[in-house]
Amino acid sequence: MTAYEHAPGPATLAPLRRSDIPRCVEIEHILFPGDDPWSAVAFRAELNSGAYYLGAYDGDGALLGYGGLAILGKRGDYETEVHTIGVVPQWQGYGIGGALLSALLAKADELDAPVFLEVRTDNDAAIALYEKNGFVRVGVREGYYQPSGADAYTMHRPSVSESDGSDGRRAR
């Protein structure tokens, strides 16, 4: 889909491949060692559910990161949830996480669906990214992440039709 010029090399977004699941699990263990990283079974279940998953790939096709959006409800009454975004540490800070989020949000906008997510209350970089993209904090889930017991903010971004834009587009 898109190349990211500021990264150490070119990166593109494309649908996440089932063959990437073992690498997703490796990345999970790197990024979330104290909080029950997702298993291969969890990733397979997400892909089997019809959720919208993208991978970020380098020029050789190696997986650098991933993002997933669950689509809930029925046509005309959808809600979506960002279930995960992860980028390998050496590629963080180059806009790949933001690009994954933007692509997930574009899918939600295509469905005219509000978006929800949970984020650790101490993950300042992720919170800033989400707020920059129109999310607001709507609650706290105490002890959400296990086994660490870390708290999470629940955040919400309205659908296109719920947003403040008078022409039906999201106000920024």
From TrEMBL:
- Protein name from the UniProt record: Ribosomal protein S18-alanine N-acetyltransferase
Q: Its Enzyme Commission number?
A: 2.3.1.266
Task: For this UniProt record, give its keywords in alphabetical order, as a comma-separated list.
Answer: Acyltransferase, Cytoplasm, Ribonucleoprotein, Ribosomal protein, Transferase
GO cellular-component term (any) = ribosome
Listed Pfam families: Acetyltransf_1 (PF00583)
Which NCBIfam families does this chain map to?
rimI (TIGR01575)
Gene Ontology MF annotations? protein-N-terminal-alanine acetyltransferase activity
Report the sequence similarity comment from the record: Belongs to the acetyltransferase family. RimI subfamily.
Domain (N-acetyltransferase): give its ranges: 11-160
